[in-house]
Structures
1.
Amino acid sequence: MDVGTIWMDGEFVDWEDAQVHVLTHGLHYGTGVFEGVRSYDTDNGAAIFRWEDHLDRLYQSAKPYGMEIPFDREELTEATLELIEREDLPSCYIRPIAFYGYDMLGLNPGDAPVKVAIAVWPWGAYLGEEALEEGVDVAISSWRKFASSQIPTNAKTTGPYVNSVLASLEAEENGYTEAILLNKEGQVAEGPGENLFLVRDGEIHTPGLAESNLDGITRQTVIDLAEERGYTVHADATISRGELYTADELFFSGTAAEVTPIRSVDDTEIGSGTKGPVTDEIQQAFFDVVESGDRRVHVVHREAEVAAVRRLDRLVGLDQLDGGIVADAEERVRDRVAPLEPLDGLVAEQVAVECDGFVEVRDANCRVIYGHTCPFAPRHQ
Ligand code: PMP
């Protein structure tokens, strides 16, 4: 992996220094929680898709394990932004992870410290570019998805992913691209790393959250996009195995897999055996949104800007912003920066501010000396 820097426990460290002790609790018992997020290179610059929702899920995932993540949302956001900037990766996959480190190796993590890391790396289409167009061949796994009476299925916990690993290995060994797991009751749950959608008679169905699947952020996006387009979406469906084979269309959704058509299940062709029209429409709508940099979904734009404005406030001694909405922040900065007096050796012309995505302070040689290093903004020349 061609990545130079990883953020670990509050510091940016070189790739080779991002190490943990071999007696790490999370290594022995899988007591970690994590996220998979994507940043897209958009006309507005890098845009992290639904970052706020991923943060929500990360903190929620930690709850059943009594894990207190020792960094707040703003710290994780800033760290991620800076990583994207440092690695120059406006389009990337982002992996935040929190896990119990070493204290003693009893099952109960006790006083084990909670370690946190974030890595970013380039990642193209998870199941392949061709898969996005042609669809994937999948098989029903002989492994069942664990039930939430066994392990919380709404938490994204590292240990239970061995279930997904087994299903993926089996699918690949048998010549399939991906698996579908049934739940304990034998109904359709999801893919090893994807939610599943079924199209029948122009209506869309997806297993409800009680079917042992993860509450996917892409799943919710798909539901919203489909409903906006007038589709009836059954988001609480129970789908039997048999219904898969007779579906008009099937597709996966997920941060990594995005919206990927399924063209066959257990060698049975689904619909026309390629991407169906409803899948095509939803997939197009999905890419339109994620590649748009639309602030309604790429919330981090706003967060980044507000954070930057706050930092600028600190720098220039303005009043602290109260974390209001962006429009407010933007206006305050526009209004207030123009008449800046010399400050800390800087003169007003050296303070370049434009909150519509870009805030920075340059020295007389035009080097950025104070940076809103917001990678979301189009670069100013
Ligand atoms: N199910 C499982 C088991 C997953 O690992 C993922 C990927 N996080 C998903 C569904 C899809 O979730 P999301 O859309 O939030 O990536």
2.
Amino acid sequence: MERQPFNKIVLIGFMGTGKSTISRLLSGRLGWARLDGDEEIERVSGKRISDIFAADGEAGFRRIETTVLESLLKDESPAIVATGGGAVLSEYNRSLMLDHAWVVALKASPEHIIERVKSDSSRPLLQGDAAERVHTLLEQRKHAYDFAHFTVDTTGLTAEQVASAIMEAY
Ligand code: S3P
């Protein structure tokens, strides 16, 4: 029996692995909508992510993240959904993703991640010594993305090649 493909692809992965860039490319190639968890969190709350962390802590942010993820995934239309790097930390969120979408993990080396995130000061979890924070969080999350249906190691690949690898596997 042939697998009935999901009409949603969820991109998971650590901060700076290229989820937003790849979601744009896939959306263009498949002609599907592009939904972005972090953008949607800022839209519905009317606040920047850093302000949500400052006012309500990480726990407050995670509550909104789950509500937003639910609404994005339960929508019926085809879409590429880019998630924040910590959306996978909740068991509930992981089940939601697996139930509604083909889940694709993007992996990148610590060096590559640090290079991508260091010039962007908007991430509350990377305040201070960003390189040190990346190493600590990567260690804490080393198996957090293993539940994906498909994983792409982006090392040495262009964004176009990453998108092609995903399209071929879909
Ligand atoms: C987070 C990743 C961020 C954002 C928030 C928390 C995390 O998204 O959701 O700052 O816990 O890894 P990106 O992965 O898009 O940077």
3.
Amino acid sequence: PVEHTLAAIKPDTLEEHRDEILEQIQNAGFSLSQIKEEKLSREMAEEFYKEHKGKPFFEQLVDYMCKGPCLMMILSKENAVQEWRSLMGPTDPTEAQKSSPDSLRGRFAKSVLENAVHGSSNQDHALEKIKFIFGDIDLNMMVHEE
Ligand code: CMP
């Protein structure tokens, strides 16, 4: 069955590497079901990352995500949540460069904070974040052709 995940290209990386990342997404066989550029407000970024509230890097994370537009995407594929996480690579680029240098974070992340891309961690989060960013769309009605 086709699964959906919420993926984001973070602001700095969107400016610098948009086309290379979109190409890598296409090459990995994802369908790009929805796409929009969006500059998150502080309130939205805080809500988007509410699972991380209280962590020492939370304020920095919110600042980083608000500093320009993100590219928000719904990626669709069998096993999309896990497949997108493996295309991103580990959160920490030092680790990504060692274990998966061809992953998006291996290629483009600058630090554990400025780590280029985001993806939902499980299917429940994926549905929640898709709804938060794209509203009440009917995922079953989406066309999965490229
Ligand atoms: P992301 O996968 O979008 O989910 C949470 C984000 O918090 C993560 O990517 C990083 O941008 C950031 N992050 C996670 N851990 C740390 C950390 N130890 N220090 C700074 N930022 C972090």
4.
Amino acid sequence: MSDKNLALNIPNDLSAFWMPFTANRAFKKAPRLIAGAKDMHYITTDGRKVLDGAAGMWCCNAGHGRTEIAAAITRQADALDFAPPFQFGIPQAFELANRVSELAPEGLDHVFFCNSGSEAADTALKLALAYHRIAGQGSRIRLIGRERAYHGVGFGGTAVGGIVSNRKMFGSLLTGVDHLQSTYNREKQAFSKGEPQWGAELADELERLVALHGAETIAAVIVEPMAGSTGVLPAPKGYLKRLREITQKHGILLIFDEVITGFGRLGHAFAAERYGVLPDMITFAKGVTNGAAPMGGLLVHKAIHDAFMTGPANAVEIFHGYTYSAHPLACAAGLATLDIYRAEELFERARNLEPKFADAVMSLREEPNVVDIRTVGITAGIELAPNENGPGDRGFTALRAGFHDYDLMMRIAGDTLALTPPLIISEDQIGELVDKTAKVIRAVA
Ligand code: PMP
């Protein structure tokens, strides 16, 4: 990063930009502004070096400022800035689809590109509905998500999502949606490493929904193998397998939302591999470009893809897509990113580092107000008891203290601190991350 990057003008008036998912009024009184980033650190506009405990937002798995990715984007922008993705194509899109599907479990051979995790979730839900229709089962229109799930902010993803605050401002969303209960139960699985031992039986609730509505009305079930945005809730041992058995038995599609678990976070290219479960579709985003360009996508099983490929040869097979599907700059970033993951064996690195990471984070269990710690892959949720101002206030205070006072960036979900650093983190840096987190926890006690 050059000094030039830091020579930014900060506008006196911050009011025009309505920031997403942000306490705008609080932020604008004490802004947290970022000017640059390299490897494991951000540089703030006042020149401080802040440890990135969040891989940006679960996306910069290879760390920041990767020159190979920047160079690939620059080269691509020079050669071809844009080409229409409908009825035309660019070679890089086909290459990236091949590369992503090579990383995916056998059978997930096709990739539909979009620009975000939200678009990937909505694409998956729409494809599920369309698939059943062309398969002569148009009565399958119900969609099943889960409480405490996050599938982005499109209408579909919000509807199958299970975060009350994300839903309640927006009316009825989609009809015909049900939710399985969240697998999280602190009494039965507190301080769990990896897959909690309790909770697989909660998948059987799907049988209840099938009995209630009839299998012939249900199109798909969508779940995150590890719910990240609601506080790091890994799937219990056996839970995803059970969901697969029940969906298969009833002809219901199973969609894994791997927007944060994809590309190494749980020590594998996709969590489906870790759990040994083959879903019908996998959504991805974030890590596919290391966060350097917006991109999302959907891996689709060949059985579903092939069902669409049977009509007249000149007919469009799916009436869905985005102007920026497989955007040239995103494809270039994606290919350069996958090269880095492969060359540096980052997924394997994450797998090997997981026990050390888990042990280091578990050392926080005696810190004040820590009521639970959950770890899986290179991810940890440290749940604090709420303070007297109500749920979420202690977490928010910790976020601010971390950034302003301890040079640490982390994510929060209510009062849970989420540590999800880049997969390049060294063992020393894990120590530093945990030390800083301990200081923050004490500061907000
Ligand atoms: N699904 C999951 C599991 C996510 O964690 C996220 C974002 N954190 C999304 C979907 C939405 O992705 P985006 O913000 O790129 O739309």
